[in-house]
């Protein structure tokens, strides 16, 4: 099938089907009128209908530029009108005798003039356009096409591919919709369980369209591949399209996902591809920033993305979560694409699982291959192409029954029959083991495993050994890796090293005087690393698998045989196998040799740590990839302690000190780290391996919780945090217990489990008191205080914050205020009343008319606290203007003074964490916003009302903008996704107050996406309340709905801190409040 569009100008005459349809209808209606006779009273009405139909035909002809249809319609219509003249004259003469003689002809003349004018304009249209229209502006230059970005795409089947014509047509339609603009950003999911040919289907489609070689025909086409022809029934083998420049993508990116790789590698790869920056090593931690970076790199290019094997990044547990993406970046990528915010392009996904995140998108369509089994004639052709040429119809049906029409099973059967039965299906039963007990699994898997069991008696010892060895890798395998494992005499260790061996690294000469500063620094770093650590070294015997060594010739012969049989796939310089085939041979070895898998994993651990990655601490995510694989194999080899210490902690993280955690802090590889940590756990995040030391068990529980929390997978993070707390209490390690109870309380608070957060906050204080370290006792009191504040007990929270600050001032007199997160939480309490009062002021509730810009004096000492204490706990209206309005202004000033001081302390500390500085900026932005609204004089306030003469002061707005920008950017850089909504909510308020409703909506939408992805219940309530308060004037129905949902969440979670604000908003939005 050729889909290449013609580039020649079409010179065929244009035919308007609607116009000619109207002409035919006109003739039919006129004929009907003629059958009535001229004296029949119905005839005039029928001919009038025919005239109207003729006019419609003229309109269609002109619209579609069909000249012949226009002429025929015009003449026929005029003819009908002439026939109507006698009837019109009779009708008019009986009612209007004075004009009876001239009216019919006037109608004819007028109608004729209109038709003539239309035809003249139509025939002169091109000439008029060329003389009147200005010359077209030159077209904008098209974006520069990118080279192919293939990562893990399989080799082509070309002529050996069978069937799937319907799927090819659907993929064609999807891409043609992109090209035409009718459907500019669709997503197509090719969904089926393993072995249905999802990957090869998409790869074949790219080849047929000519996309994999832009601008030229595929090699097979140039080598004389025959054109479309019928073969064995109705199956055609279409010639590949050479690819027209008008319908090919500007960028084609293919990524095959692998276990243990993490979405970090994908994000880095796709952004590097579009930016064409191979040196890119680190991405911002926030997925929104990553998407923004990708969007800029993509530009205006028309793209085609293939995400192959996406089930690796999907949730596999049954239930509502099945098929959901684990990665924020992947989820955001697909959502941005579906919304058209990445430009024009097509995303094709192959997966074993449904794409739950896209289920509601109207631009998503799924091709379910399991519901579209191969037909008999397609199976017939498949067997012939694979070398099985001799079989009867009965034998064909028997093979179909054994295979279940499963493509991979059919291909495996064909390989066995072609290799061991001379290409004949006769007597195939001799290979079948009738007592084969298929393992549990999908029905299609059971078909495959039954057939793979035939190989038990067919493969020789060398072939079985190669298959079981390759099956324990998780990635395509190079021949030289197999040499180390199976052919020690062929393994040249020094030559196989990627880079220089350790001995040569240490002997690298010092750079000369002409070397750059960068080169000298790199050399010095290498010298330091060589002195402080090195990759392990192993003898050839330590790398070789147990059993007699193979010769190089025997290994190559076995590989060729397995490729010919179809069990292995050779891609350039590597060998790979299907995941289901890999699973079968792993299971087979475990059944035959209990220690066999561990022996293989031990050798692979050594191979990855010493040969595949000989550099002790490699740079970049690609350099760390072999070490992540080493963690996987090390744990399965039973080397838990060595793996966690020597590989994960020392080489991947580069230690846990202030300059450690390289993979996460320098590369942002949080998902890759989590995948590595997961190897040390069982079925749940509570079950850390008992083969580790107790301190390392506790540390890995903390690592898992930290990584899960950073990725927004907050509910999952509860399990390791709870397990770590239980472990600390059991060991009576009160310091660790206090820290873990405090972290657990913070997380529970974010998730909306306020009652549990209060209890665990209280436990953290008790554990800290038993530990007796002052700083821990101080910190845990702030954690408990924050939980009480959110629960609505402001008085108890204030008392704990004040007690904590007294401890701080006593132990560190130079820092008398709480700072960092603790200072921010206290400021949040201080500003709670100001936030509520500021909104009331913005809707004109508090301040009486005429006092918008009146100076507000600070209340006397003690008044603010006394007034605040009374209304903070109340869920009713705020007190009238007076001291109650001054109290929140005083709180803003206090929060500003404190944050200014703590920010100065942190600014003077070069090692201050970015989050600490960021939270101070956020406090200053919030306090400035609320004070400006309460004072009514800053430009952060709503625009001046009619009659105001005082110009607004721009200084508060400038200060708020400065701090707010620093806060939002800092929160993104810190990677703390559960803090970012705080900054977005404040910025939304500022934007709404300044009249930027669209900007406010954007911030609220981003905050909602973060909160929704992480099940952050309190933030969800805050967002709904904020959206209603800020935007209720634009859409009161939406605001009422938001308040209703916010009320449900507040009551469900016990989020009583918001009781008063929610009551205020309900009174205003529901119209119960009068100014």
UniProtKB/TrEMBL annotation:
Keywords assigned by UniProt, alphabetized: Membrane, Transmembrane, Transmembrane helix
Name of the protein described by the UniProt record: AAA ATPase domain-containing protein
Annotated region described as Disordered, given as residue ranges: 212-251
Keyword hit for Oxidoreductase: no
Domain of life: Bacteria
Membrane-spanning parts: 14-36, 42-61, 68-88, 103-124
SUPFAM superfamilies: P-loop containing nucleoside triphosphate hydrolases, TPR-like
Keyword Transmembrane helix: yes
């Amino acid at each position: 099938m050729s889909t290449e569009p013609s580039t020649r100008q079409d010179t065929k005459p244009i035919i308007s089907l609607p116009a000619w349809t109207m002409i035919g209808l006109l003739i039919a209606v006129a004929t009907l009128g003629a059958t009535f006779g001229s004296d029949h009273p119905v005839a005039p009405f029928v001919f009038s209908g025919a005239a109207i139909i003729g006019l419609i035909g003229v309109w269609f002809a002109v619209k579609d530029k069909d000249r012949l249809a226009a002429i025929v319609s015009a003449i026929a219509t005029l003819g009908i009108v002439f026939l109507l003249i006698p009837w019109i004259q009779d009708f008019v003469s009986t009612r209007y005798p004075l004009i009876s003689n001239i009216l019919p002809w006037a109608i004819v003349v007028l109608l004729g003039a209109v038709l003539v004018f239309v035809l003249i304009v139509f025939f002169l249209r091109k000439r008029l356009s060329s003389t009147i229209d200005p010359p077209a502006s030159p077209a904008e230059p098209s974006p520069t096409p990118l080279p192919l970005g293939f990562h893990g795409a399989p080799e082509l089947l070309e002529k050996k591919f069978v069937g799937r014509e319907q799927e090819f047509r659907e993929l064609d339609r999807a891409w043609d919709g992109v090209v035409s603009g009718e459907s500019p950003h669709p997503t197509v999911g090719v969904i089926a369980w393993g072995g249905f040919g999802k990957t090869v289907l998409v790869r074949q489609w790219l080849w047929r369209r000519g996309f994999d070689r832009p601008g030229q025909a595929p090699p097979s086409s140039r080598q004389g591949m025959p054109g479309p022809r019928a073969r064995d029934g109705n199956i055609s083998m279409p010639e590949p399209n050479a690819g027209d420049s008008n319908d090919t993508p500007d960028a084609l990116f293919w990524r095959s996902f692998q276990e243990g790789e993490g979405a970090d590698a994908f994000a880095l790869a796709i952004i590097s591809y579009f930016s064409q920056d191979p040196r890119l090593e680190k991405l911002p931690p926030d997925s929104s920033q990553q998407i923004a970076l990708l969007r800029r790199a993509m530009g205006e290019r028309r793209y085609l993305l293939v995400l192959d094997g996406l089930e690796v990044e999907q949730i596999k547990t049954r239930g509502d979560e099945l098929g959901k993406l684990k990665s924020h970046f992947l989820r955001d990528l697909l959502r941005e694409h579906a919304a058209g915010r990445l430009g024009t392009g097509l995303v094709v996904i192959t997966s074993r699982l449904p794409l739950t995140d896209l289920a509601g998108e109207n631009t998503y369509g799924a091709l379910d291959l399991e519901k579209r089994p191969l037909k008999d004639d397609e199976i017939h052709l498949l067997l012939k192409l694979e070398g099985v040429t001799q079989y009867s119809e009965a034998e064909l049906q028997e093979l179909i029954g054994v295979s279940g029409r499963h493509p991979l099973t059919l291909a495996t059967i064909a390989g066995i029959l072609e290799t061991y039965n001379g290409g004949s299906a006769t007597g195939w039963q001799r290979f079948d083991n009738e007592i084969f007990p298929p393992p549990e699994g999908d029905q299609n898997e059971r078909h495959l495993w039954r057939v793979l069991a035939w190989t038990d008696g067919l493969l020789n010892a060398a072939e079985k050994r190669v298959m079981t060895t390759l099956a324990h890798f998780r990635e395509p395998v190079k021949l030289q890796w197999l040499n180390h494992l199976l052919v020690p005499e062929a393994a040249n260790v020094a030559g196989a090293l990627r880079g220089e061996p350790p001995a040569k690294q240490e002997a690298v000469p010092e750079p000369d005087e002409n070397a750059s500063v960068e080169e000298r620094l790199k050399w010095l770093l290498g010298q330091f690393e060589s002195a402080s650590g090195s990759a392990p070294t192993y003898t050839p015997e330590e790398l070789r698998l147990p059993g007699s060594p193979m010769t190089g010739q025997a290994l190559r012969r076995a590989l060729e045989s397995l490729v010919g049989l179809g069990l292995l796939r050779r891609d350039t310089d590597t060998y790979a196998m299907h995941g289901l085939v890999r699973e079968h041979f792993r299971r087979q070895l475990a059944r035959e040799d209990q220690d066999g898998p561990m022996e293989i994993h031990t050798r692979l651990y050594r191979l990855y740590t010493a040969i595949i990655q000989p550099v002790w601490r490699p740079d970049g995510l690609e350099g760390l990839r072999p070490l992540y694989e080493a963690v996987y194999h090390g744990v399965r080899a039973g080397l838990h302690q060595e793996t966690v210490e020597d590989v994960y902690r020392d080489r991947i993280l580069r230690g846990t000190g202030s300059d450690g955690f390289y993979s996460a802090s320098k590369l942002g590889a949080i998902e890759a780290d989590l995948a590595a940590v997961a190897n040390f756990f069982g079925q749940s995040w509570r079950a850390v391996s008992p083969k580790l030391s107790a301190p390392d068990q506790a540390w890995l529980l903390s690592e898992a919780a930290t990584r899960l929390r950073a990725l927004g997978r907050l509910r999952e993070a509860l399990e390791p945090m709870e397990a770590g707390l239980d472990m600390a209490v059991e060991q009576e390690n009160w310091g660790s217990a206090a820290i873990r109870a405090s972290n657990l309380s913070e997380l529970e608070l974010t998730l909306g489990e306020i009652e549990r957060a209060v209890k665990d906050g209280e436990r953290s204080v008790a554990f800290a008191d038993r530990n007796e370290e002052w700083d821990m006792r101080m910190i845990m009191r702030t954690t408990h205080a924050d939980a009480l504040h959110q629960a609505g007990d402001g008085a108890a929270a204030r008392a704990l914050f004040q007690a904590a600050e007294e401890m701080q001032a006593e132990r560190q007199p130079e820092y008398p205020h709480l700072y960092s997160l603790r200072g921010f939480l206290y400021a949040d309490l201080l500003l709670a009343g100001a936030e509520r009062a500021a909104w009331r002021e913005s809707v004109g509730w508090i301040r009486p008319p005429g006092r918008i810009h009146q100076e507000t004096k600070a209340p006397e000492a003690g008044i603010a606290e006394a007034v605040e204490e009374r209304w903070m706990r109340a869920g009713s209206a705020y007190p009238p203007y007076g001291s109650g309005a001054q109290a929140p202004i005083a709180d803003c000033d206090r929060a500003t003074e404190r944050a200014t001081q703590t920010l100065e302390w942190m600014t003077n500390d070069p090692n201050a964490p970015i989050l600490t500085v960021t939270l101070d900026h956020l406090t200053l932005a919030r306090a400035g916003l609320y004070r400006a609204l309460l004072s009514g004089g800053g430009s952060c306030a709503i625009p001046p009302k009619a009659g105001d003469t005082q110009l607004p002061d721009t200084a508060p707005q400038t200060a708020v903008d400065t701090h707010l920008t620093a806060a939002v950017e800092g929160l993104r850089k810190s990677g703390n996704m559960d803090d970012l909504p705080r900054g977005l909510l404040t910025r939304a308020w500022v934007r709404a107050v300044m009249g930027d409703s669209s900007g406010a909506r954007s911030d609220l939408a981003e905050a909602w996406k973060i909160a929704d992805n992480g099940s952050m219940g309190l933030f969800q309530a805050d967002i709904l309340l904020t959206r209603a308060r800020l935007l209720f004037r634009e859409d009161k129905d939406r605001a009422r709905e938001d308040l209703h949902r916010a009320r449900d969440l507040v009551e469900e979670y016990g989020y009583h801190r918001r009781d008063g604000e929610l009551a205020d908003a309900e009174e205003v939005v529901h119209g119960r409040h009068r100014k």
